[in-house]
Amino acid sequence: MNDKNDEARDRRWLLLLALFWLAAAIWLVSQKWAAIKGLALPDTDDNLRLQQVRDWLGGQGWFDLRQHRMLPPGGADIHWSRLVDLPLAGLILLFKPFLPIFRAEQVAVTIAPLLPLGVIVASLAFISRRLIAPNAWAIAPVLLMFAWSTLGMVAPLRIDHHGWQLALMMVMVSGLVMRRRAAGGAVSGLALGLSLAIGIELLPYLGLTAAITSLFWVADRAEAPRMAAFGAASAGAAALSLMLFIPPDARWLGLCDALSLAHVQALALGGAGLVLLAALPLPNWWARLSGLLLLGGVVAASTWVSHPQCLGDPSALIDEDARRLWLGNVREARPIYRQPIQTLIASMSLPFLGLIGFGLAIWENRRNPARLRGWLAVATLAAFSFAFCLFQTRAAPAAQVLGLSGAAMLAWSLIRLAHRMRPPFRAFAVAGAFLLSSGLMIQLAAKALPADKRGRLVSKAGVANKRCATLGALRPLNRVPPGTMFTFLDLSPRLLVTTHHSAITGPYHRNGKAIADVMKAFGGTADAARAIVGRYHADYVLICPGVGESTIYARRAPNGFYSELAAGRAPDWLEPMPLAGDTPYRLWKVRKN
């Protein structure tokens, strides 16, 4: 009888979880409805992702990832993976027979990001059930609704690869806390291999997960099945991903900014070593640790001999001028403490509260080895991501989603205290527990703070960014004969999606020489710009004054090429091209003679 009740309870929580995801999806769609109607993809990567899918569905090869409307005629080198294209392309093909293509794309870009949202919600619920209590599954998914940085990666229109990377990372963490050791190791390993197929941004987290899985075994020999399954699954998934998603001519080059032979070689050697170590009858922890350290040394030495470039700073491979002019101005590549104060608090309050919750969980489970091991694993990843934000703001979404389990434990502890109160006060105490553990109270208090100078500049540029990205602002450009536009890096992907024009390049680091040239042109003199524009055989020069990128050029060269154009003073080698309608864009035709 108890078994039947347990099965019914399991089915019930899964049904409620699905309903929660559906409700969250509907709420997010309602919040983004105006942007959905205007196909207002929020980021350069989202726009280029849609264009890449269009090109693929239009006949471009599976392994041809170049963007041929940038840097024509050869195309810009885009090192992305088709894995993330699959759900988006599938949704477009699903709705295309019933809707005009524009409407089919609208539906696809609305639904596609909600799929990784579902994976994250399910992973958080699973972790809570395993580590907190079976009936605590809903707390972390509810708190996710207050994790703005994470939620922004899986909201409608956010079709770039970051949402899927976060989802696979949480699947990987779920594998760490699974009771069935071999299954848990296989789940974590498969998620690691697929994540590498998408991109290597989360490589530090993947490496840390491998270390945690191995240290489980060092502490407890019974963890051998988890470690062996992890090693085999991660190596196998990465090798298969290399063959399925990486162009043949790029597989064996040993490139470090995308999945390549360098990564598969390390995973294959390391995975085989983990399987071998798991099979050896090593009797004590120091023997197991010695074997693990020896394996780590072999993998590191092998990589040093065959692909030494992959052990250094990845940004060192970017064009030197692009690194100096462009990378230092990428906001998400800056430390979190260099962001506006409201951004810092909104990003870090929940991860900070999560660390408090992890401390409570570790103390409370100090005599429960199985749960303690799980909490230590998740807490280690969360603490690492929190520290990583001190170097790069781009770590904030990972810090939030990893901190949610700790925040859920904090909420659970506060809810248990609230249940000791009398009914009239209990409901208020429970609501207060959620407000506190979500960081919302801290964020609301932060909003009362006056915006600092950085915050005011970001807000002002944000208004221009939104206006310049609208279909209404871009539509007049389609009345101009097709040509190659010399424009800002961040405008180029949007230009491709909404017009029939080509562009020089976008903010994609393999095209570092072109990135540097665009920035030198707008941030230099008109004469220097003329030489660069001519070198790329551009037909037009296009600007949208006030957008975030333009502030870099205005600050760097108050009397430079961009500043003169924005002030209405164009050189004689540019012919003004009036644009119809109310558009913030300014366009000039290049006089080729």
Strand order of the largest sheet: 2-1-3-5-4
List segments where confidence is low: pLDDT < 50 over at least 5 consecutive residues.
Answer: none
How helix-rich are the residues, as a percent range?
A: 55-70%
Main sheet summary: 5 strands, mixed
Q: What number is the mean pLDDT? A: 91
What characteristic shape results from the CA principal axes? globular
Strand content: under 5%
Task: Please compute the radius of gyration using only Cα atoms.
Answer: 26 Å
Which class do the helix and strand fractions yield?
mainly alpha
Query: How many distinct beta strands?
Result: 5
Distance between the termini: 88 Å
Report on the structure:
This protein has a 5-stranded mixed sheet with strand order 2-1-3-5-4. The protein has helices at residues 2-31, 33-37, 44-57, 85-95, 101-111, 114-131, 139-144, 148-152, 162-177, 181-198, 203-219, 224-245, 248-251, 261-279, 285-306, 320-325, 341-364, 369-388, 396-418, 423-437, 440-447, 453-468, 471-474, 492-498, 512-522, 526-535, 548-556, 561-566, and strands at 484-486, 502-503, 540-543, 574-577, 586-590. The termini are far apart. It has a domain at 459-590. It is globular, with a radius of gyration of 26 Å. The chain is mainly alpha-helical and 593 residues long. The model has no long low-confidence stretch (mean pLDDT 91). It comes from Tardibacter chloracetimidivorans.
